[in-house]
Specification:
With 211 residues, the protein is an alpha+beta fold. The chain contains two helices and 13 strands. The strands form two sheets. Strands 2, 4, 7, 9, 10, 11 and 12 form a seven-stranded antiparallel beta sheet that branches. It has a six-stranded antiparallel beta sheet with strand order 5-6-3-8-1-13. It is globular, with a radius of gyration of 22 Å.
Length: 211
Amino acid sequence: MFATKTFPVTTMRRALLALALAAGAGLASAQTLHVELDTSGFTGGGWLDLQFNPASVPAVAASALIDNLAGFGADFVTAGEVSAAGAGFLFGNGSDYNDLFHAIAFGGKVSFDVTFGGLPDPSPAAIASKFSVALYGADGLTQLGNVDPDGNVLALNWTPAASGAGSVGVGYAAAGLAAVSAVPEPSTWLMLGAGLALVGGIARRRAAPAA
C-alpha cells in the first residue's frame, strides 16, 4: 500500500498567488488591448466609428494601431491621420479629428486588437488622447447601443508618462456590448508558463508514492 506524501497547503497557496501576481503584472503593463463587441442584438450590416483624438492640439505624438480585425466588412472611410497598415489601420493624434468609419456585419462578435504608443511627456499637465468606438446602423446615422454622453460604446484614454510608456485606462465600456481585455506581452506568457509548471510540479509531488 502506498502512502501519500503531504505537501504544506500554504506552499500551494503561495505558488498560486505568485502565478496570479505574474498575470496581474502583465495586465497592468500591457499597451495592447483586445476589444470585443457583441452585436448579437442587431441584424444586417452597420458601421463602426473609431477615433483617436487628443484632448487638445498640439499634444505629444501618440499612435493607436488596430489589427487582428474580425467581423469587419470591405468598405471604409478615413479622415485625419488614419492610414492602412497591413491588415489593420494606424491612427496618429497630430490632428484634432482622426476617424475611421468602417462597415461591419451585425449578429455576432466584432473584435480587434489596439496597440498604443507614444512619446513621454514630463510636463505636469500632459495631454491625453482618447480612442473611442461608436456603433451606427446601416444608414450611417442612427447610433446603436447604450452609449456614453459622447455617443460612444467604448472609450479608452491614453495618457503619456514622464518617461517610458504611457498608461491606458477604460473611460467607458457599454455593459453587455463592449468588453476589453489586456493582451499579455511575451514575457508575461513566459511567467504564466513558469507558474503553471510550478503548480503542476507541486501537484505531482503531492501525488507521488512514498519511497
